[in-house]
Structure formats: structure tokens, C-alpha cells
Specification:
The complex is a heterodimer.
Chain A lengths: L3 H15 L4 H16 L1 E10 L4 E5 L6 E5 L3 H9 L3 E3 L10 H7 L6 E7 L5 E10 L5 H28 L1
Antiparallel strand pairs in A: 1-2, 1-6, 2-3, 4-5, 5-6
Helix pairs in contact in A: 1-2, 2-5
Chain B lengths: L2 H13 L4 H16 L1 E10 L4 E4 L9 E3 L3 H9 L3 E3 L10 H7 L6 E7 L5 E10 L6 H25 L1
Antiparallel strand pairs in B: 1-2, 1-6, 2-3, 4-5, 5-6
């Protein structure tokens, strides 16, 4: 019942999120909230581009986008398997990309991911958190699944439908 | 087509609600408005009792049906929306509900609502579009709408049980 209280207060977060008019305004809020409630060090939201078969995500400044191929790493595995992944020993996981740690100097100790589905049940993106002090457990997986679904409407609306109306 | 901007505003209103009854009422009035339908029922899946129930449907009060019955039950089983523009010729249709309410169903659209585990937790049913029949465009709007409200609905159902 680690998250019992979180579920209770989630609607408050939902209200704040819906005040954001665009995806780029919403992403930092989602990321900050997820890190706080899940007690993780980093959060990334990878948005899937089915045309180019790539993901994009924003760096810490939320301005610059980086693009990664969609068939690599734990994020790629999440897309392919359509299921969350949790590992508390990423360096011995066959799909973990340790090159990224080498480039950035960050040391990944634990990873949790969850797919984000659209209303058409296609994958809209992948939600990822890194480094929880005692590692991620099944309660975290449950919350990730719930939370990814909870934010999916906002992501789909701002990433896809509102763009068509502008 | 300003529908999606409208849904964005609606979302804020929905999030402000905490009681399940109010959440269901607001979802149902918005759904009707989006596709110009006359009536709306939101059926909630109860796996334990193998039923689909509504809190209160327009003009008839509470409806309880078994999980597989009617077009709503078929929506649950198939996990796919259904457009039925000739209900009285459809073998799945339950005319006894019309009989009970004194209402005549001319056409119907149903949309499954998925929870975070991707199971169907409910079905939105709309009856009698004001002009003409339900179309694929209505289906697209409502499919998006059902997913958009599903997070809030899952949250209130969780707190209600």
C-alpha cells in the first residue's frame, strides 16, 4: 500500500497538468511529479514517432530535443514487448546501453520503464525513471502502469489532436 | 472542428470533481454533446458479479445486465466499439430495455473504456443521434474521449471500492 496516499492526491496533480496547454509545458511537470512520488533520481519521457521509428525526448532544459532509434536499449525493448521493464542491475541486463552512462558520466543503478498507450492502443511513448535508492519493486511497476495511463490522455491530446486544430 | 480544444477544457472541469456520481454525469453530458446524441449510459464492469451496471441512465434509472448481453456486452467481449444504425434488426439488441423505458432506440454507438491494465472497465453507450446515423467520425472522437476520461474514472472507481 506504498502508493495508497499518492492515488488519493493524484487528482490534484491531474488538475495542474491540465492547466498546461502544450506538451512541452506539461512534460517537466510530469517528470518532476514522477520523480517525487517514486523517489527516483531521473525521469525521461520518450515520445514515439512511428513514421521515423524513433523516439524523441527533451534534455534537462526542455528546449533541445534528442532523437534516438526506437529499437535500442530498455526503451526499445519496452516498445517491442509493450510491457514495463524493471531492473535493479542494469549493467548485467542484455539490452542496457552502458555507452550513454559513459558519455554523460551518470551511473545508472536501477531502471523502470512503462509503455504509454494511445486511445487506439498504439504506443505513444515510453516513461522511464532511473535510480531509486533501494531499487524498484512491484508496487512501483503497478504505479508506473497506472500513472502512464493517467497521463496518456494529456499526451495524446497535446502531441496529436491539438496540433491538427491549430 | 474545435472538438479537441473543447475536450481539453472539459478535462479541467472533470478533474475538479471528486464524487463518482458527478464524474459519471459530467462524462455522459459531454459525450452526448460531442456527437449530438439524445441519451447516454455509462456501464461499469463488475467482474466479480459478472454484470455491467449503470449508476443512472437517462430516462430509465439503474440498468443491470449480464456481462455478455446486448450490444454493450458484446463491446465488452470484443473490446471494440460498435456502431448499430438498425438496432431492431440486430440480434444482439435488447428491446426489453426500450419497452421498460418507453423509449425507441433508432441508432446506437458503444465505446469500451480501458483501464491502465488494458482491461475493459466500462462501456459508453450513446443513443439516437439528432440527425442521421452514427458515423466513423463519431467513433474516432469518442474513442479518444473514452481514453481521455479513463484515468479519472479509474481513479474514482478505485476510491469507491
Amino acid at each position: 500500500m506504498t502508493y495508497a496516499n499518492t492515488y488519493h492526491t493524484l487528482a490534484q496533480f491531474g488538475r495542474e497538468l491540465l492547466e498546461k496547454k502544450t506538451l512541452s509545458q506539461g512534460l517537466p511537470l510530469i517528470s518532476l511529479y514522477a520523480k517525487n512520488v517514486m523517489k527516483a533520481e531521473r525521469c525521461s519521457i520518450f515520445i514515439y514517432d512511428p513514421k521515423d521509428k524513433t523516439f524523441w525526448t527533451t534534455l534537462a532544459d526542455n528546449v533541445e530535443r534528442i532523437v534516438i532509434p526506437s529499437d535500442k536499449g530498455l526503451v526499445g525493448e519496452t516498445l517491442h514487448e509493450r510491457k514495463p521493464i524493471v531492473t535493479n542491475d542494469p549493467y548485467s541486463h542484455p539490452n542496457f546501453l552502458s555507452e550513454i552512462d559513459k558519455e554523460t558520466g551518470f551511473i545508472t543503478k536501477s531502471v523502470i520503464t512503462a509503455p504509454i498507450f494511445s486511445s487506439k492502443r498504439e504506443i505513444l511513448g515510453v516513461f522511464q525513471l532511473l535510480n531509486k535508492e533501494d531499487g524498484f519493486d512491484q508496487d512501483d511497476v503497478k504505479f508506473m502502469i497506472f500513472f502512464s495511463h493517467y497521463i496518456s490522455g494529456f499526451l495524446e491530446l497535446t502531441n496529436d489532436y491539438l496540433k491538427k486544430e491549430i | 472542428m474545435r472538438k479537441f480544444n473543447e475536450i481539453a477544457d472539459f478535462g479541467k472541469e472533470l478533474m475538479a470533481l471528486e464524487e463518482m456520481d458527478n464524474v459519471l454525469d459530467l462524462i455522459s453530458s459531454k459525450a452526448k454533446e460531442l456527437v449530438n446524441a439524445d441519451r447516454c449510459s455509462i456501464f461499469i464492469v463488475d467482474i466479480e458479479d459478472q454484470i455491467l451496471w449503470t449508476k443512472h441512465s437517462d430516462g430509465i434509472g439503474r440498468i443491470v445486465i449480464s456481462l455478455e448481453s446486448g450490444i454493450v456486452g458484446d463491446t465488452y467481449l470484443k473490446k471494440e466499439p460498435q456502431i448499430v444504425n438498425n438496432p431492431y434488426e440486430d440480434s444482439r439488441f435488447l428491446p426489453k430495455i426500450d419497452k421498460k423505458s418507453g423509449y425507441t432506440t433508432r441508432n446506437m454507438i458503444t465505446i469500451p473504456i480501458f483501464n491502465s491494465k488494458r482491461d475493459v472497465m466500462g462501456v459508453i453507450q450513446l443513443l439516437n443521434k439528432s440527425r442521421g446515423d452514427f458515423e466513423p467520425q463519431d467513433l474516432e472522437t469518442l474513442t479518444f474521449f473514452a481514453n481521455y476520461v479513463s484515468g479519472s474514472l479509474e481513479l474514482v472507481l478505485m476510491q469507491d471500492s
